[in-house]
Structures are given as structure tokens and as C-alpha cells.
Write the C-alpha cells for this entry.
Amino acid sequence: MDIFAWLFPRASQPADPETEAAIGCLLQIIDPRLKALSGISKRLAPVVRAALDFCGCAIEAMPGPLDASLPHWREAPELRVLFTRNDEVQRIFSHQEVVRDYVDSHPGAACFYALLGAAFEERKSFGSIMKNGVARHDVAITSLNFKNHRLFLPRMRQTTFEYDLRWALFRQLALEMLGRLSAMKEEQSNWREEIAFLRAQLAYSGQQGLGNFLADESASDAGMPNDLAHQLLASQSALRTAHPPLQSLENTLEWIIETLSAPDALLHMQNLDYRVDKANQVIAAEEEGLDVHLRHFAVTAPTPRSGVLLRIVYPSDELLPRRQMATDLDRLYL
């Protein structure tokens, strides 16, 4: 090895700007103090890069972008099951403030791309169906039900929308980690407090104070020291085995690297494939109906949420005028 190379080692190749930006975003959300650790960018770069790629693949797996315009929304089975009528699409989209604000600030946009989400449930019931011209009663029926439709991240161009959506998914990964980390630290803090309390009790139980002299000899606390010792050992064991130690920034960084290496365990995604009839009831594969592919997401931070997500494109001029929306509201409450 050349002595000059040994004395002056070549600096490692810096991560690409996007990865560096993602590392900064991750640390800012979880704990900015981690930036003080030496070599943190080099250590985080591989898992952060992989997490960004994971978010990109997650977007590609979402249905869409689907044309949700009035003449075409029925052509997409996924939109067909989310909405019952074309005026429902127009009404729901028009009442989304995030969309109204964006369109008002971009008057030249002919259309916008956005993420459409809705809460989802399978409803189980019993009813009557017609099969091969014969009525069958008390048949188990599964219906798909959607509610609380929301639009997110309206953007004028598809490339901009998908770029911002990928960053939104990455930030969600960071929030999921922050939630888990906070819960783990709180749990470990509780274990430490209990251990300290048990140690104090155990030490006190060995003291012969006036209280012991006055106590009834038949009291049932004769085995108290042994019980406390067993509880203390159990609590110490629980603290050691429940989670990795998180007492230092280095411990936290190691946990982040390990956890982020499995992003699919942070952001739960599931493909849902159904064949449904016109009433959104699940039917057999050989029956006449629509094949629907949905992508279901579940997150926990800041609160547990789940639902289906898909990408849509919608003409700006199909949004209802604000004046008409106000009139509709007045009619609703009069």
C-alpha cells in the first residue's frame, strides 16, 4: 500500500443529492441530534436509498393514473366501485379544499393529478340472490363499502405528482419509525422506573425499623423480600429482552438502520383483487361482473389509519363553481 494513500486516504464517494436530502429529512423527523454522529450519512445511505426505491415501487403498484372525468370514470373498475354515480365524483372532488386551493392558484391547469383515498370495509350479510334463474335465500353476501373519500397532493403534471408522492411515502416511513421509537423508549423508561422502585422496596424490607417492631408477627408479608427479588429479576429480564437498548444516540442509529432495511414492515401494503357485480357484491370468478384491483395501505402514525389508494387525473373545469357549492349547502340546511 502506498504510504501517501495510507497517510491521506481518499474520501469516500458522497451519496447522491437525493439520498443526502432524504437522510436529512429522516433525521429531522426522528431526532436532529443524530446529525452529530460521525459518518452518519455513509452509514444511512444504503438503507435510505433502498427505502426511496421501495417508495417508488409502491407508487407503480398503485392503480392509475385513472381518468376520473365525467365521461370516462366508469371505464375504470376501481373508480366504478368507489363511486355509485358520476355526479358523486364531481361533488366529492369539488368539496376538497386542497383541490380548490390548488386549482385557484393554478388557473391555467387543464387538469390535475392527485392521490385518491377512501376508507374500505368488507360487509358480511345474508340475503337473496338470483342464480341461473333460481332465487336463493339466506345466502352469505360480501359487499365492498367505501367512505370518507379524500384527495391528496394535487399537481399539474404527472411527473411532479409522483415525485412528491414518493417523498410523502418516505416521510411516512420516518413517521412510522418515530412512533415506534417513542413507544419503545417510553416502555423502557417504565421498566427502568419499576426496577428502581423494586430495588428501593427490597432495600427497605431489610431494614429493622420501629414499624417492623410494632408489626403483627402473623402478618402475611414474611415472604415479601423473596417476592420483591423475583419481581426485580423479572423486570430486569423484560428490559433486556423487550427491545434493543436505546439509551444512546448510537443505539438509536443502529435501530434506525435495522428497521429501515425492511420498509415493507413499516408501511403495510396489500393487493386486494375482487370480482364484483353492479351492486359491489363479491361474486364468483365465472360470473358476469367486473375485475377490480385495489391497493390497500395501513399506517400507524400519527394515528392508525387504513384504506385503499389510487392515482387519478381529473379535468379542472369539471369542478363545481364555488357559488353552486354554496347554493347546494344552503339547500341542504334549509
About this structure: DSSP finds eleven helices and six strands in the chain. The radius of gyration is 29 Å.
